[in-house]
Amino acid sequence: MRSSRQLVDIESCAGHILDACGEHVVLATPLGLGKPNRLINALYRRVAVDRRRRLTIHTALSLDVPNPSADLERRFAMPFLERQFGNDYPTLDYVAAMREDRLPVNIRVHEFYFQSGAMLRSRQAQRDYVSLNYTSVARDLAGTGINVVVQLIARRMQDGMVRYSLGCNPDVTLDLLDRIRDAGMPKPMLVGVVHEALPFLGGDADVGDGESLFDVVLDAPEGGQRLFALPRDDVDDVEYAIGLHASTLVRDGGTLQIGIGALSDAIVQALLLRQQRNVDYLEIIRGLYADAHDAAGHFEIGGADPFRAGLYGSSEMIMDGFMHLRRGGILVRRVYDDLALQRALDEGAIGSQMGPGDARILRDRGVLPARLDQGEVDRLAGLGILASGSRIESGRLRLADGESIDNEFDTAEALAKLDEHIRGRVLRGGRYLQGGFCLGSSELYRWLGALDGEDYDGLAMCRISEVNRLQRGIEALAARQRRYARFFNTCMIATALGAAASDAIEDGRVVSGVGGQHNFVAMGNELDDARSILMLRSTRRVDGRLTSNIRWNYGHTTVPRHLRDIYITEYGIADLRGRTDEECVKAMLAISDAAFHRELVEQAIAARKLPVDFAIPESWSANTKAALRARLRNARISGLLPDYPFGSDFDAVELRLLAALKWLKSASTQPARWLGLAKAAVWPGPVDHEALQRMGLANPSSLRERLVARVLAGALGRIR
Questions:
Q1: Residue range 307-354, pLDDT digits in tens
Q2: pLDDT above 70: residue 293
Q3: Which of 355, 413, 425 has its CA nearest to residue 386?
Q4: Per-residue model confidence as pLDDT tens digits over 666-694
Q5: In degrees to the nearest 10, what's the CA dihedral of 406, 409, 415, 420?
Q6: Measured CA distances, 225 to 6, 191, 216, 394, 476 (Å)
Q7: With bands split at pLDDT 50, 70 and 90, how would you rate the model's confidence at 719?
Q8: How far apart are CA 600 and CA 589, in angstroms?
Q9: Of 314, 108, 238, 165, which is closest to residue 538 (Cα–Cα)?
Q10: Which DSSP letter does residue 277 get?
Q11: More confident residue, 470 or 291
Q12: Are 30 and 171 in contact (CB under 8 A)?
């Protein structure tokens, strides 16, 4: 057996890669958290100064620490960012170069997913962007000549032996290696960079001793970097309304896919209220709907009662929300890689613990064959039905306790004896959550790192091909595991006829990427009991002007209208599946902002999608932010819908400053607020000295600083 080369120095590792790969290094590195930034920077810097060499990087979601330029933003952000990331976080050199269009001519970077909005102004990044569905990445990169893969890995000692895990990113790496092998091409060098704080996760991610996988294991003391922890967002009224609507579509005993950010936090908080404070939850939901019939119709798709069977999570990303759902007793439905057993569980024929008569049920349901061979014995032991150590001996089933049973399970006697043996046994090998990669807060990483027992065993990090599609050859099992799936995703723009733009703007510039959205929409349409649900805010401000995110048409499409399913805005749910164009237009109008109804109706009439005498219903006039705020006011005041439902990374002073800075930003587009701010700046009232101290403005040293301090003091006064 070959041994991985063990290295302890980053520069030595970079030199080893350059020596092995020759003049053209074609490097693949995982999306998000799994990048070894310091090693990538070492390679980048060596190639940048040696024009005889070339470097091509294939990756996605290159995370970068914010670097605000405005004075107030910098004063607020820099102390927080140092606390969050440390003062020596190794930002990726190629990211800064791409943003400023100064990549060296011998270095190219092809990303299939950008950090949202980060590269809108970069010519180099926009030209070299590759539009790929997440599950297609391995297939499409296999022929690009990749000769080295680098990624962070986790390490643990078990029974005196070292084990490795791909941790946060088994998603593309394993699929890519298989695709390259199947194409008959040489295996690229695989460099695993040990990160002691990276959670060791199971499933496909657990690669054992790694000897057959890693060519190099780099354990460099100077190679550490803080795990990139996303600050937790606040959740506003619009996001809470969307999350509350979404929560009514989730069915007990079903499957959940959600993304990251404030909208996902809102969904999770709503689901927790549904589970733990159901009376309050129902009151909030009723308050959102002027027509109780509308709410009842959505309950038919999902529900509003507390969860009994619970949910299973199957999501490309493992994020904080799943941690909170697990802690809250919702993420408890387990699935098993055995079709007959899964069917018996779903239909309620058996439970997770074997009871009297279950041997007969297992036989009738096909879980237990008429006769067992050793392979079937091992399968049943792996599921926990038989005890480990059971075996076939002289044609009979020898149980682990030594008892021998006739291996003929179409006989009552054999079934009765087996029934006694399995009574009280608990199923094992099931999982409550599978994902392709992890990204979230520091709390999430601590939780993942501390998992043990059933909590650890039931979380499987998988190849993305196993998460984002129905696995080939076992489609029936994959579909049953994902029963009542609800695939929640976000989009930027939706049309009144049901198309969506999620990844790019009208002129073609990419904001982020398609990621797994295509696959979720496809599975939502492919699975009989699943739904694809796209969420968006009804409006946004562009250059200070309020615009609708529901348009008649848009110059870019991510999800075509023939795959239209469910849309959610703060004003409700539009179920478009199987509807006529006229019905779709009406449904989308009903969840759009009242300020844009007339314009959309006129466009629909002109396109012959609405009758010329169509009248806007009076009830739609309540689709305003003021009305929404009133509907949620009591729940906000009572603390059921807090600004930070899962805690904040900011301290109390910073939270006050954040509120003031947001008020200032909104005031820039509203002249009436500027007048109020001017008055507050002249007569600020009680001054928040603690906040001014935090911003370095307690003792302004120039006229400009005095003016800035006055404006900030005024804003702080306005939000008290």
A1: 999 999 999 999 999 999 999 999 999 999 999 999 999 999 999 999
A2: no
A3: 425
A4: 776 665 555 665 665 565 567 889 999 99
A5: 60
A6: 20, 17, 19, 58, 43
A7: confident
A8: 8
A9: 238
A10: -
A11: 470
A12: yes
Q: Which helix (H) or strand (E) holds 25?
A: strand 24-28
Query: What SS3 string covers 491-556?
Result: CCEEECCCCEECCECCCCCECCCCECHHHHHHHHHHCCCCEEEEECCCEEEECCEEEECEECCCCC
Q: 184: Cβ–Cβ under 8 A, 6 or more apart, which residues?
A: none
How far apart are alpha carbons 276 and 190 in whole angstroms? 47
Instruction: Give how far the C-alpha of residue 458 lies from the chain's centroid of Cα atoms, to the nearest Å.
Output: 18
Phi, psi of 697 (to 5 degrees): -120, 15
Burial of 453 (0-12, 13-18, 19+ CB in 10 A): exposed
Amino acid occupying residue 239: E
Q: Is 613 exposed, middle or buried (0-12, 13-18, 19+ CB in 10 A)?
A: exposed
Amino acid at 211: E
- 166-218 residue pLDDT tens: 999 999 999 999 999 999 999 999 999 999 999 999 999 999 998 889 999 99
Residues 6+ positions from 288 with CB-CB distance below 8 Å: 241, 244, 245, 295, 572, 631, 632
Q: For the purposes of burial, counting CB atoms within 10 Å of the CB of 123, is it exposed (0-12), middle (13-18) or buried (19 or more)?
A: exposed
Give the CA angle between residues 673, 677, 682 to the nearest 5°: 155
Return the residue matching tokens 């620490």.
65
Backbone angles phi, psi at 587, to 5 degrees: -65, -40
Give 639-655 pLDDT, tens digit per residue. Answer: 999 999 999 999 999 99
The encoded tokens of residue 673 equal 């607020």
Average pLDDT, the chain: 93
- Give the contacts of 642 (CB within 8 A, at least 6 positions apart): 235, 636
Q: For residue 514, is pLDDT > 80?
A: yes
- The encoded tokens of residue 655 equal 């939270």
Q: Looking at the predicted structure, is the pLDDT value of residue 260 above 90?
A: no
Q: pTM of the prediction?
A: 0.94
pLDDT for position 427: 96
Q: Which two tokens stand for residue 703?
A: 């006229």
Instruction: Please list the alpha-helical segments (H only) found in 536-646.
Output: 581-590, 597-606, 625-638
- Using the Cα atoms of residue 690, residue 694, residue 698 and residue 699 in order, give the sign of their dihedral: positive
Task: Find residue 191's DSSP bridge partners.
Answer: 150, 216
Q: How far apart are the C-alpha atoms of 701 and 712, rounded to whole Å?
A: 16
pLDDT of residue 533: 97
Q: Which two tokens stand for residue 98?
A: 């791409």
C-alpha torsion sign, points 447, 452, 458, 461? positive
Phi-psi region of 282 (alpha: psi -120 to 50; beta: other; left: phi over 0): alpha
Got the DSSP string for 148-211? EEEEEEEEEEETTEEEEE-TT--TTHHHHHHHHHHTTPPPPEEEEEE-TTS---EETTB-TT-T
Give the pLDDT score at 708.
87
Within 13 Å, how many C-alpha atoms sit on residue 534's CB side?
31
